[in-house]
Amino acid sequence: MKKTPKLLAVGLAFALSLAGCAGSAGTNPAVGAPGAGESIDAHAPPPADGIAGHYSGAVTQKGAAVGTVKMDLSESGHSAGGSVTLKIGTLPKLGAIASLNVATTGSTGTLVVLPTKTISSCSFAITKAFYNPNTFMLTGKLTAFHGCTGEAFSFAAKEICYYRVGHGKREDVAPRTFPKSC
Q: What is the value of pTM for the model shown?
């Protein structure tokens, strides 16, 4: 019978710890979840005119063309991301992963260049990224902040084709005749 109070105390402590983890999103948000007052509707159309698609374009540094960029971006609500291939100067083709917070006032995010045999991983802040639905151009700035400090580039890439983005009853964000669906 002496074990009962000890078991009861352990059981009660466990139950209370679980109850503390079960708070509402406003009082106990999960890691990466929107905070109090924010909500994300998975079926809401993105704030910009759908940037999901395949892009190809140029990378410039101080106004001079120094390479090329190819991107395949997907999106869901205010988030976009995908694979990026960069060819800059004499470096071999570099693979990268991009993640963006999409906003009509300018998208921001991170681009992580994957390591190769000759270079280590490198991270860039993506700033002032805008999609122009009239010209089908995605432009922005890349500023190194880890592993390649000091490097800064701009990019301008034309949307070659767009990816279909499902939103509840609507299948496309904006059905278009050009660029074509990928």
A: 0.69
